[in-house]
Design goal:
The protein folds into two domains: 193 residues, Periplasmic binding protein-like II (D-Maltodextrin-Binding Protein, domain 2, 3-Layer(aba) Sandwich), CATH 3.40.190; 144 residues, D-Maltodextrin-Binding Protein, domain 2 (3-Layer(aba) Sandwich). The chain is α/β, with parallel strands linked by helices and 379 residues long. Strands 1, 2, 3, 6, 12 and 13 form a six-stranded mixed sheet that branches. Helix 2 packs across helix 11, helix 7 packs across helix 8 and helix 12 crosses helix 13. A hairpin with a 2-residue loop joins strand 4 and strand 5. Helices cover 37% and strands 17% of the residues. One of its GO terms (cellular component) is periplasmic space. Its main location: periplasm. GO terms for molecular function: polyamine binding. This is Spermidine/putrescine ABC transporter, periplasmic binding protein, putative. Keywords: Periplasm, Signal, Transport.
Length: 379
């Protein structure tokens, strides 16, 4: 963004105004002046969808860049991919929030300038300094979007009343028709909530951890499969699976918009928020390009694209982004409850204590949870 000198404007705009206008700026800058330049490739490590044309094509055309995405599923796999790659391999890293602290401890990401991003426009105070995104007063990641995980089900097999508790997964009629998204954190977090651990769902002592394992194992006879993104999507779409553990509207929302009889709700035991954030890879030679793209995704236009992402929807995290979504796509804003005053408004659910931010285990290691997950799958 061009730095102006004093007196350049009759009234200089605020940083927030400049950042909110950033989306329009990066898409309206004349392309002719740099038409001669070779296209800059930006290597992205992300969940599937973030480097697809519906998100990046317009930005690529306006800025003479090309995103080269490498997709992963699950933070454990993300960390492994980075560990196996030379520093500077990835310019942009889209991470689940609970793994940002791991990225920072391993020195995989660069420090970021808070002044570059609209932190004063976030929808919730927690989002301004989201857990794990800051260390020693320094910022290392920018929260991009979120979504809620709870009970996901076929409305022809599970009633709305039954879906008010994770207990519905044990419904006898669903034997062999309950699926799992194949990652331990979402499922074990839900089992911990079902066991009554509430806000301490990730901070389990030995007895509580034993109980979570026991509860999870008791569900095994209901399970018809463990699926990646595509398998989870198709299992619900074709009706092979009548309920799915470990997901939420990020899967059922896509199907629901296509008319499938599926839904996701936050049950009485509470739900989990997944949070996706952008960091800049350590050693990247394209820090400025990465920063500029993150600014675009935090602009109202970028937040709308994120909320409408074809692969899986998400919640806006800025006030300006939510306002832009309501104006541009009121049907999606209504469907996803991103409306002020809606009792299922994601922000309302956080304020009511019904949503818990996804984290990593506090008293066990990730390996402990993953080892149990492997045992569970093979049982």
């Amino acid at each position: 963004m061009t730095k102006t000198t004093p007196g350049s404007f009759m009234s200089a705009p605020s940083r927030r105004q400049l950042l909110k206008a950033g989306g329009a700026a990066v898409l309206s800058t004349p392309f002719v002046s740099r038409a001669w330049a070779s296209t800059t490739e930006i290597n992205m490590l992300a969940w599937y969808g973030h480097g697809e044309p519906d998100i990046v094509a317009e930005y690529e055309a306006a800025n003479n860049v090309k995103f080269v995405p490498k997709y992963y599923a699950g933070g454990d796999n993300m960390l492994a991919l980075i560990a196996q790659s030379p520093p500077g391999t990835y310019d942009l890293i889209l991470s689940d929030a609970e793994f940002v602290q791991q990225l920072n401890l391993a020195e995989y990401i660069e420090e970021m300038n808070p002044g570059d991003y609209p932190l004063d426009d976030m929808l919730h105070e927690d989002f301004t300094q989201f857990p794990g995104h800051w260390a020693d007063g320094k910022m290392y990641s920018m929260m991009l979007r979120g979504g809620h995980l709870g009970v996901s089900y076929n409305t022809n097999s599970v009633s709305a009343e039954e879906a008010e508790s994770y207990a519905c997964f044990w419904k006898p009629e669903l034997e062999g028709k309950v699926g799992h998204f194949d990652w331990h954190l979402p499922t074990l977090g839900m089992m911990s909530l079902y066991d009554g651990n509430g806000a301490n769902l990730w901070n389990l002592d030995d007895d509580q951890w034993d109980k979570v394992q026991e509860t999870t194992m008791s569900l095994r006879k209901q399970v018809g499969g463990f699926f990646d993104y595509g398998g989870t999507f198709n299992g619900l779409k074709n009706g092979e699976m009548q309920a799915m553990v470990g997901i939420g509207d990020w899967i059922t929302g896509v199907l629901e918009k296509d008319g499938a009889p599926v839904a996701s709700v936050i049950p009485k035991e509470g739900g989990i928020q997944f949070t996706e954030s952008y960091s800049i890879g350590k050693g990247s030679e394209k820090v400025e390009e990465a920063r500029k793209f993150i600014q675009y995704m935090m602009s109202p236009a970028g937040q709308v694209k994120s909320a409408q992402m074809a692969a899986y929807p998400g919640f806006c995290v800025t006030k300006a982004g939510r306002a832009a979504l309501i104006e541009a796509d009121p049907a999606e804003a209504q469907r996803s409850h991103q409306i002020d005053g809606d009792p299922q408004d994601p922000i309302t659910l956080i304020n009511e204590g019904r949503i818990h931010y996804r984290d990593i285990p506090q008293q066990q290691s990730l390996e402990d949870w993953n080892d149990f997950w492997s045992e569970y799958k093979s049982a």
